[in-house]
Amino acid sequence: xxxxxxxxxxxxxxxxxxxxxxxxxxxxxxxxxxxxxxxxxxxxxxxxxxxxxxxxxxxxxxxxxxxxxxxxxxxxxxxxxxxxxxxxxxxxxxxxxxxxxxxxxxxxxxxxxxxxxxxxxxxxxxxxxxxxxxxxxxxxxxxxxxxxxxxxxxxxxxxxxxxxxxxxxxxxxxxxxxx
Length: 179
Hints:
Distance between the termini: 57 Å
């Protein structure tokens, strides 16, 4: 079968690769996005877009300064028992929108191995509906883990349906574990 290349896309490489997980061995909560956006990929940092609400929300929930350098913010999350990763290891996607991920190109991360290395994980929080649906479709059938799953409003600036306060309230409930 012959494939056709859209002339407007010829010569463009839309393949993107995600980051390694950021996780302490005793992490209890795993926050999953779908795939880092363009700003994050350029800076090699999770949630690097200046209007993404993730870091202000995490700082509010855990009481650290959102102005900390990236390494300091990661340490604060790890100290709180929170790990970061994405559902996808790689995919073709022009731009940053989850809706533009080409379904026939996605490669999921190895969650079986990750969860085996992090047995204290009890909750997986999805940063947006796309992350939750990708996980449900491409990961969950092959992973035997008894964890709680929570789909949360996306912290992306593209998700304007929920206000910052609404996002903060949902994320605050999700990121706090009862001991």
